[in-house]
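Sequence in, structure out. Go.
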Amino acid sequence: MLIGWRSQHKHHPDRPRAAGIVDGDATAQKTEFNSHPKNTMSGKCFVYPKPRYIRPALAAGFRVPVTLEVLYPRAVWEAALEGEQLTQRNPIGVYPESLVKDLALGAAQPGDRIADAWRIFVDYDFSPEAKIRTANQMARLPDNQARAHLTEFEVLLTDVLGFLGCIE
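Output:
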């Protein structure tokens, strides 16, 4: 979408800038787009930050996708789990290869090497319907509650809004 925006913007430089925010696994695409100086005259790509509470899982080799939902606090995930809005992740795609191998050999059990602090983020994901519903709920929060719930998102939003010229 940013490439399309750039194609239009180069003919209409008076139009506002655009920002794109992509999942954490799209760092290479972000770097590629932003490496062209003319691209960033009209648009810039940003990547969701790795929240502090998921970094230990990533450091342990778990491949938890850094998506918008991962930026939601644990309490939102727990409420979604209670409301049956989460789906089980495929361990083969998320667990470190060594753990998958140990599971296959019977040397480990599901849940081994997963700390309780980040287990819910490793084992579950929001169902497609719940992603939209939860995003809408988050968008309707009063400012003070949204700020408290989305602390991991604040730095990114500050960067995006700064690029767009909305804040200094």
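Check: The beta strands are 18-22, 43-47, 86-88, 124-126. The radius of gyration is 19 Å.
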